[in-house]
Amino acid sequence: MADTLERVRKIIVDRLNVDPSEVTLEAGIKEDLGADSLDVVDLIMELEDEFEMSIEDEDAEKITTVGDIVEYINKNK
Amino acid sequence: MLTGKVAVVTGGSRGIGRAVAITLAQAGADVAIFYAGNRAAAEQTIAEIEKAGRKGLALQVDVSMAEQVESAMKEVMASFGRIDILVNNAGITRDNLLMRMKEEEWDQVIDTNLKGVFLCTKAVTRTMMKQRSGRIINISSVVGVMGNPGQANYVAAKAGVIGLTKTTAKELASRGITVNAVAPGFIETDMTAVLEEDLKQQMLGAIPLGRFGSAQDVAEAVKFLASDASAYITGQTIHVDGGMVTS
Questions:
Q1: What CATH code is assigned to A1-76?
Q2: Per-domain residue ranges for chain A?
Q3: Where found (chain A) (predicted)?
């Protein structure tokens, strides 16, 4: 879990240009971290590469917080 | 000018698409062409690309079929490793007066000329977004701006391409991808060779520059839009029509 969060955090910090401390499990990707819809698509693509998995569009739509991402990855990888 | 770039040109076996493919190759790009059915013509285009010292790849693709488009783009990636330029040129005509136009004639033209642009664009966005750069050039038509009797399907598709171009440009601008349209006027190709002589003469009268265009005229505009020189231009329609439409 911790390891997944760290890897996710690194990608989010890199992509969204936010401070690592802002990337908590509760943080909303759009609301708190300021991502627009294209950023989210971008992020999903990065995550797919990083974790060598594919995230279906229907699943991607349900992801709103950093915690959702971590949970999804741990469940599906 | 385009050294190290990889281009995909749909409808690249003949006409404007062939001229574009060869011109991009001469400017330094490796070029994959999609063709509908004329393998011999596609191979001729590839031979010209190779003569320019670049790599060529011909793939038979129905651009209106999502699966075919996606697997073809994957093949291009497998062969060339990147896609920098997409030229959506594939197009067909099924001319008829609106009142006589069959539903299939409408659907076929919309599917190839408009949906095909959507599918091919969608299939490269992921690659281009990751690269943080890309050039998409959609071939529209002067008739998409002016209208033309007997071509309701073709005109609707080509006008649709202009709207699609503007929207795609806005969606992808923040990722360094530019999207523009080129609207050729009357260009001498197989597609226009079938038109009647008196119609041609009538059209000539409507062209301020007093001549029909060549596929090369169009290819030069595409080459500019495919290059770094056009970096600050997006969402535009460049008319290559001898002055038929002035905006």
A1: 1.10.1200.10
A2: 1-76
A3: Cytoplasm
